[in-house]
Structures are given as structure tokens and as C-alpha cells.
User: Which sequence fits this backbone?
């Protein structure tokens, strides 16, 4: 019994299931159709003169009117729909009576069966089936001629009532089947929807990212646990809870509310705002990702947002920005921050004074007291400097012991501040447990307009070097005489930068000056010397661009180019003993220099490394910040020889040769010129030659231009000479010809 009932339940529709708004729409349609049917029936009856006199048709029409009123006024679902069913039964019955039982009039019952199925409710559907069958049976007996339009039905009304009832029931059966199939499809759709909603609920509620669904009017429709935890909200929000009720508020109230921005945007958006907690005052940076959801008509239904608290990231970025803008040692502005702020200061409609400072004899202090004391000295200097300059002035450390100050005002204002700085450093600085007396050299220059920023700083730098050359501890103002040097320096830097960006073999050709054996005059080596070819075709000597290369760091790519070209020509000139290449202190200090040299030699395994000579100046060795001896030892381990250039021009004595792992000593031209007529120079050269031989070093005398000096060097048994007497620097092809002629003489 239970099984049969369950099977019947499975095959029959359950009824109902419509949402209130859907049922109301369908009932409104059915009520209007009933009223329209009643009006049409009255009009039809009037035309056929079937109304009046208290006949059956009139009574049916009169009974239909209360059904229309009841359907329109009664509350609930079932009772109004039942009155609609009864009303349609009477309309159909009246229409059949008006046509005197014509068969075609009975078709209206089949139409109403399909219409009443819209309710998806057994009550109106069943009432109509029962009423229809009752009408055909009862009315067929009471007035067969008005119910059936043929003799057989009039004679056997119950039989035909049964036939009509079965026909209507069959029509209803198909409606029931359609109804049940629709319910099954809706059930499957609902199950899929429930599953999707369950997945969405899990994804929405369990995700660690704070998320919420907002209505366009600001109501919060739904939140996940992460959102509530982040904003410290209760698990159940009160009805009508608005975004303005949240415990955070924007810091910048001048901006449009976030919800307004989300409503106006199309698709998705990402906005970052700063908020403040209303209870604690804590500030938050929140990245809001918003996605608008529209219906088919394009109306905004809801806004889906997820919020990322990026406060820590923002603070980290601020710390990084602060580190970029400030010098790590002193806390002053960094070079990049100063250059940026200086442009802003120069953009104002008034002159700007720039003071460039350098600590006098800082290297001696740093070497004598140690790097820790040097750092403490720089920090103390920065503190005193910041306390001396006016409020609003830019104070930066450019690197090492160089500082710069920029302030609005003409040169006299800058001079007043510069003298105040000199006076401030008249008092010793406290460093560690003691005090250090320091002085600074200051250069002053004035500029106007952001386009002159670099030029103004460079001018102040130039004036500072003038102050240092004058003895230090003084202020030097930039003058027009210095301006020429600054412009030349800028032009030289621009030319070199342009040359390095072009075809190096054309823009930076390498020339070679011969080095000869003193006794025979035969070419044994060459010194590689770079030239710069301007776009106009003019060739410039190193004097015009090497200082700019040293200052800007362009000496590193320039030196690498010279080194590579020298090695290439060494391979071509197999009869040449060696080629020497000048290496600047900046190159030598580069950590990549030795690996570059090793890679270059490894690329040419057939080349004897001893044929390559690296020339280092004595003054460069004294001023280098790296462990020169260790780096030179590494170079020697590669098989490359080392030459000490311009020997005798620095501060060293002959004992300097003992501390440098050099292979060649190059005597400066100041010892060679006039050698034949100056016995004292001969004694010095003789001493150098003796010491070099004892240390297994070779000697090259530079700047030989007089045959008498050459003969004097030959008498002193100097191994090699270099100078205009034997040949000026020449392009590689000319040097090749010179080398061939030299070999033919031997």
C-alpha cells in the first residue's frame, strides 16, 4: 500500500511551488481573462437575444460575477483560484447554453483546463474537472437541448456527460503530465542551484579574504567570517545594516564615498583607500576589489567586494621609500631625493643657492681613527650641519664625505649660510670618547629654473675644489672663470657618452705609441692610447675626455674597450713583445675587472698573458680604496705583467717599489728631459735602475725627445725608451707599417 502510494506520488505533481510574486502574476492574468470572458459572453448573449426572462443563461452569467469579485478581493492563494475555476465553469456552461449545446462550444472547457494548469494547484484544477462533469450530467438531465446539440446526447445525457468528462479528463491528464515534468525539471534545476549555492557558500564563507555583498543603496546583504573578523562585527548583522554603519571611516572625507565609486564603475575595479577605525583611531590601508552584478535589463543588482588589508605592505613601501630618500648613515636626503627636490625648489620663481661641502683631509682622519670613527664623524657632521642651515633647506649626503645644501635665496643668502657652517665647525666634533677638529671646504653657486639643476650643482662642486686647492676651511663662490671649465666638463661628458653609444671602433679608435729597446732602437712594445672622434670628424686626445670619464664612471666601459682592442692587435702583431694598457683606479676598484681580464685571456688561449702589460699610476695606488696589493697579485697570477706608470711624480720614495708587485717601472718624463746636461737626474735614474734590477724589474724611460737624452740613457744601460723621438701615437695600420720597418732594420 505504501509502495503504491509512493509510486503514485512519484508520478503525480505535488502542486504549489510557485513564489508569491509568480502566483500573483498568474492569478491576475486568470482573473482578467475571466472578467473578459464574462464581458464577451454578455455581449454575445445580447446580440443573440439570449438574455433576460430568467433563463438558465442569465442565471449562469449572474453567478459568474460574484466569482470575479471573489477572485479579485479574497486573500490567500487557494480560495481565489477556486472561484476562478468556478467562474470559468459557469462561463463555459453559459456559452454552451447560448449555442444550444453546439459541439464546438464545448471546446471552451478544454481551453480552460490548460489555462487553470497555470496555477499548478490541485484545488482549482480538481474543482473545474468536477464542476465540468457535474454540469454535463446535471444540466444534460435538466435541459438536454441547451446542453447537447445532437439527438443521441439529448436522449442519453448521462452517457454523454461521461464521454465529455472523460475527454476533459484526458485533456487534463496531458496537462498533469506536463505539470509533473516541469516540476521534475525544476527540482533538478533547484538541486543544481542548491549544490552551486552550497559550493558558493563554502567558497564565500570559508575563504580567508574578507568579502561582502552590497546592495546599490548601501545595505550589506551578506558577509563572510573573515570580513566580520577583520572589522570585529557580530556573526548576525541587524536588518538594514549599511556600509555607513561599519566601524571604519575614510581618512580623506573630501573624496567621494567608496560605494558611489563602485556603483558608477562598469565591470570590475580596484581602489585603494586609507581608513580609520572609529573606536581606536588606528589607520588602515585597504585595497577594495569591486565587481558589479547586473540583471538582463542592465540594472545593478548587487556589488561583490573583497577587501585586502594592505596596511603592512603600505608601511613597508613607506619604509623603502624612506630608505631610498634618505642616506642610511646620516639620515640626510640621498642623492636621488636631493636631485628630485632641487628641481622642485628651482621651479619656484626665485633663485636658489647651492652649497657643496667636502671634509678636509677626511681620508687621513678615516685611516687614522678607523672606519667606525669616520662613520661617527660623518653622523656628527650631518647633525651639526642640519642644525646650522635654515629651516626648509635641503640637506643631503652625496656620498663619502661630500654634502650639499640647497636653499631659496640669492648668492648673498647662500654666502651667509656658508660662513655660518664654517663657524659651526670651528668647535670640535665629539667622536667616541674624544673630540676631533674638522674643517670643510665649501663651494657656492646660484641657479634659477629647473633646467639648470645639474649645472648649478656641478658649478658648486667646481667652486668647492677651488676652495680645497686654496687650502681648505673656506668658502669659494663660483665665478665666470670657473664657468668655462664647467661647460667644458659638461661638453666632454656629453661627447664621451655619445661616443660610447656608437660604433666604438669608429668613435673611440685606439692608437699605439712605440716602445723601443734603448741600445738598438728596435720596437719591442707599444702603449695603447685611446682617441675620441667627434661627429664632425675631429680627433681629441685623452686630455679632453679622460677626466670626465673618471668622474662619471664611464672610464669603466671605456677601459674595457681599450683592453679588448689591445688584445686583438696583440694577436695580430706576433712579432711585438707586448702592449701596455693604462688602467684607472676606478677600473681597478671594480669587482668585475679581474674576472673580465681572466675571461678575455681565456677567450684567446693562444695568447701569452705576459705580452699584456697593465699600467697603474703611483698616485692612483695611493688613493685607491681597495686592497691594491691583493688585486695586483691576482692579476699577476693570471700571467699579466704590471707596470708602475709616471714613477717619481707622487709622494713615494724608491722603497715604494718594494711594496708593489710590479714588473715594469716607467720613469716620468720630468726625469728624462735634459738628462744629458743634468748629472743629478743621471744619479736618480741610476739609483732607480739599480733598485729595479735588484727587484727583477724592467725600466722604461718616458718622454724621450732629444737624441742626447737617448744616448745618456743608453750609457746608463736603461733597457727601454718611449717618446716622440721614436714615434708619436699612431693608428693601428700606421703602427703596423712602423713595426714592419723596425723589424727590417734589425
Assistant:
Amino acid at each position: 500500500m505504501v509502495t503504491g502510494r509512493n509510486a503514485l506520488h512519484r508520478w503525480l505533481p505535488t502542486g504549489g511551488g510557485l513564489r508569491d510574486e509568480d502566483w500573483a502574476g498568474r492569478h491576475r492574468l486568470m482573473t482578467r481573462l475571466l472578467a473578459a470572458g464574462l464581458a464577451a459572453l454578455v455581449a454575445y448573449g445580447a446580440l443573440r437575444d439570449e438574455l433576460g426572462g430568467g433563463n438558465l443563461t442569465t442565471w449562469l452569467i449572474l453567478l459568474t460575477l460574484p466569482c470575479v469579485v471573489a477572485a479579485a478581493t479574497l486573500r490567500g492563494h487557494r480560495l481565489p483560484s477556486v472561484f476562478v475555476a468556478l467562474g470559468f465553469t459557469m462561463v463555459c456552461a453559459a456559452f454552451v447554453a447560448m449555442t444550444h449545446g453546439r459541439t464546438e462550444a464545448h471546446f471552451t472547457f478544454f481551453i480552460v483546463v490548460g489555462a487553470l494548469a497555470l496555477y499548478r494547484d490541485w484545488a482549482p484544477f480538481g474543482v473545474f474537472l468536477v464542476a465540468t462533469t457535474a454540469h454535463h450530467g446535471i444540466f444534460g438531465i435538466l435541459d438536454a437541448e441547451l446542453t447537447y446539440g445532437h439527438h443521441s446526447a439529448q436522449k442519453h445525457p448521462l452517457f454523454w456527460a461521461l464521454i465529455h468528462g472523460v475527454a476533459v479528463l484526458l485533456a487534463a491528464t496531458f496537462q498533469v503530465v506536463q505539470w509533473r515534468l516541469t516540476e521534475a525539471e525544476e527540482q533538478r534545476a533547484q538541486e543544481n542551484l542548491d549544490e552551486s549555492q552550497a559550493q558558493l557558500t563554502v567558497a564565500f564563507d570559508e575563504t580567508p579574504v574578507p568579502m561582502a555583498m552590497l546592495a546599490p543603496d548601501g545595505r550589506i546583504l551578506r558577509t563572510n567570517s573573515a570580513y566580520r573578523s577583520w572589522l570585529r562585527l557580530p556573526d548576525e548583522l541587524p536588518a538594514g545594516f549599511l556600509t555607513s554603519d561599519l566601524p571604519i571611516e575614510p581618512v580623506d572625507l573630501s573624496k567621494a564615498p567608496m560605494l558611489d565609486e563602485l556603483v558608477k564603475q562598469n565591470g570590475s575595479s580596484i581602489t585603494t583607500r586609507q581608513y580609520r577605525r572609529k573606536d581606536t583611531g588606528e589607520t588602515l590601508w585597504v585595497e577594495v576589489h569591486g565587481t558589479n552584478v547586473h540583471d538582463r535589463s542592465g540594472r545593478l543588482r548587487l556589488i561583490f567586494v573583497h577587501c585586502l588589508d594592505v596596511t603592512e605592505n603600505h608601511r613597508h613601501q613607506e619604509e623603502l621609500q624612506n630608505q631610498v630618500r634618505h642616506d642610511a648613515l646620516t639620515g640626510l636626503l640621498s642623492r636621488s631625493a636631493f636631485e628630485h627636490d632641487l628641481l622642485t625648489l628651482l621651479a619656484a620663481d626665485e633663485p636658489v643657492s647651492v652649497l657643496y661641502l667636502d671634509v678636509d683631509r677626511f681620508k687621513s682622519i678615516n685611516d687614522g681613527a678607523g672606519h667606525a670613527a669616520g662613520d661617527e664623524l660623518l653622523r656628527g657632521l650631518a647633525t651639526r650641519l642640519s642644525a646650522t642651515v635654515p629651516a626648509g633647506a635641503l640637506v643631503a649626503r652625496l656620498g663619502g664625505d661630500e654634502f650639499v645644501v640647497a636653499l631659496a635665496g640669492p648668492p648673498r643668502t647662500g654666502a651667509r649660510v656658508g660662513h655660518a657652517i664654517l663657524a659651526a665647525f670651528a668647535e670640535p666634533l665629539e667622536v667616541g670618547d674624544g673630540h676631533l677638529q674638522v674643517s670643510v671646504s665649501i663651494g657656492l653657486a646660484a641657479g634659477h629654473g629647473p633646467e639648470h639643476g645639474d649645472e648649478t650643482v656641478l658649478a658648486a662642486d667646481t667652486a668647492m675644489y677651488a676652495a680645497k686647492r686654496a687650502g681648505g676651511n673656506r668658502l669659494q663662490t663660483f665665478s665666470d672663470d670657473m664657468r668655462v671649465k664647467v661647460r667644458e666638463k659638461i661638453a666632454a661628458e656629453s661627447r664621451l657618452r655619445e661616443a660610447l653609444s656608437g660604433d666604438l671602433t669608429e668613435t673611440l679608435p685606439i692608437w699605439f705609441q712605440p716602445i723601443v729597446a734603448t741600445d738598438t732602437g728596435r720596437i719591442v712594445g707599444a702603449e695603447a692610447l685611446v682617441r675620441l672622434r667627434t661627429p664632425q670628424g675631429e680627433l681629441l686626445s685623452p686630455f679632453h675626455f679622460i677626466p670626465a670619464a673618471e668622474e662619471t664612471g664611464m672610464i669603466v666601459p671605456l677601459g674595457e674597450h681599450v683592453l679588448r682592442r689591445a688584445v686583438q692587435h696583440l694577436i695580430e702583431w706576433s712579432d711585438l713583445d707586448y702592449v701596455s694598457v693604462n688602467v684607472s683606479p676606478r677600473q681597478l676598484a671594480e669587482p668585475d675587472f679581474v674576472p673580465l681580464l681572466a675571461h678575455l685571456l681565456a677567450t684567446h688561449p693562444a695568447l701569452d698573458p705576459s705580452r699584456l702589460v697593465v699600467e697603474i699610476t703611483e698616485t692612483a695606488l695611493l688613493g685607491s680604496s681597495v686592497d691594491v696589493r691583493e688585486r695586483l697579485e691576482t692579476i699577476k697570477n693570471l700571467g699579466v705583467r704590471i707596470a708602475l706608470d709616471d714613477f717619481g711624480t707622487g709622494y713615494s720614495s724608491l722603497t715604494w717599489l718594494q711594496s708593489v708587485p710590479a714588473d715594469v717601472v716607467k720613469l716620468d718624463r720630468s726625469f728624462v728631459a735634459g738628462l744629458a746636461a743634468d748629472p743629478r737626474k743621471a744619479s736618480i735614474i741610476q739609483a732607480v735602475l739599480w733598485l729595479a734590477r735588484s727587484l727583477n724589474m724592467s725600466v722604461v724611460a718616458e718622454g724621450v725627445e732629444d737624441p742626447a737624452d737617448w744616448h745618456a740613457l743608453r750609457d746608463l744601460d736603461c733597457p727601454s725608451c718611449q717618446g716622440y723621438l721614436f714615434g708619436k701615437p699612431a693608428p693601428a695600420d700606421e703602427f703596423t707599417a712602423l713595426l714592419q720597418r723596425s723589424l727590417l732594420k734589425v
About this structure: Residues 1-9, 11-15 have pLDDT under 50 and may be disordered. The longest strand covers residues 283-294. The chain is about 55% helix and 20% strand. The radius of gyration is 52 Å.
